[in-house]
Automatic annotation (TrEMBL):
Alphabetical list of Pfam families matching this protein: F420_oxidored
Full protein name: NADPH-dependent F420 reductase
InterPro entries, sorted: NAD(P)-bd_dom_sf (IPR036291), NpdG (IPR010185), P5C_Rdtase_cat_N (IPR028939), STEAP_metalloreductase (IPR051267)
Domain of life: Bacteria
Keywords assigned by UniProt, alphabetized: Oxidoreductase
Entry's Gene Ontology cellular component terms: plasma membrane
Domain Pyrroline-5-carboxylate reductase catalytic N-terminal: 15-108
GO biological process: copper ion import; NADPH regeneration
GO MF, one example: oxidoreductase activity, acting on NAD(P)H
């Protein structure tokens, strides 16, 4: 089956919340979603930092900021917190996130003198941990391989890559695919069930190694789709 973006749902009226939206990846995603015409809420442990981060994004007026609770009240919520904050953040917002599509883009990575490496996760992956912590939410995994440097740079017109979207709820995954497609140059490609998220998260370590070796901001393109 050939990829058909027109078959994906209309997400133009959805509000996107980003937990950890003051970090590089969260701010970058907020900026690109906003440039794609979506309404975005940036969340932070410190509400004032969330407000400041939203105000500093250049050339967009459809982004607001506040605490993580504020972001969690959006229609679709992206988890972009550091790995060490993943479990406590989701536990604290469990009730607010019930019934919502939750998109986990956290990469559990460690770093030593030999470079980045994937950390073991008891549940199998960060996304599976989110699924276990949020049994009433519709958890998907996506946006793991997007360069924060490119996302936040207003001089970069297009982000030419594919976003691998994983999830057991195909309707929720289709919404996430459509959100990815709002960013110029991006496609959201369904890449399997949530149990396959571990290798997608771990691939980030390989991309970091590529970036370091070749001085680039590498992404992923899926061929023949």
């Amino acid at each position: 089956m050939t990829f058909d973006e027109s078959a994906l749902p209309d997400v133009s009226d959805l509000t996107i919340g980003i937990l950890g939206g003051t970090g590089p990846q969260g701010r970058g995603l907020a900026y690109r979603f906003a440039r794609g015409g979506l309404t975005v809420r940036i969340g932070s442990r410190d509400a004032a930092r969330g407000e400041q981060s939203a105000a500093e994004l250049p050339g967009v007026d459809n982004v607001t900021g506040g605490g993580n609770e504020y972001a969690a009240d959006a229609d679709v919520v992206v988890v972009a917190v550091p790995w060490e904050a993943h479990e406590p953040t989701l536990l604290s917002l469990k009730d607010r996130l019930a019934g919502k599509i939750v998109v986990d883009c956290v990469n559990p990575l460690g770093f030593d003198g030999r470079g980045p490496f994937a950390l073991p996760v008891a549940e199998g992956s960060a996304a599976q941990q989110a699924e276990a912590l949020l049994p009433e939410s519709r958890v998907c995994a996506a946006f793991h391989h997007v360069s924060a440097v490119l996302l936040v740079d207003p001089e970069v017109a297009r982000i030419d890559l594919d976003v691998l979207v994983l999830g057991d709820d195909r309707e929720a995954a289709a919404v996430v695919q459509a959100i990815a497609g709002r960013v110029d140059g991006m496609r959201g490609i369904w890449a399997g069930r949530l149990r396959n998220a571990a290798q997608v998260e771990a691939l980030t370590a390989n991309l970091i190694a590529i970036n370091k070796r070749y001085k680039v901001h590498a992404g992923v393109r899926v061929t023949d789709v």
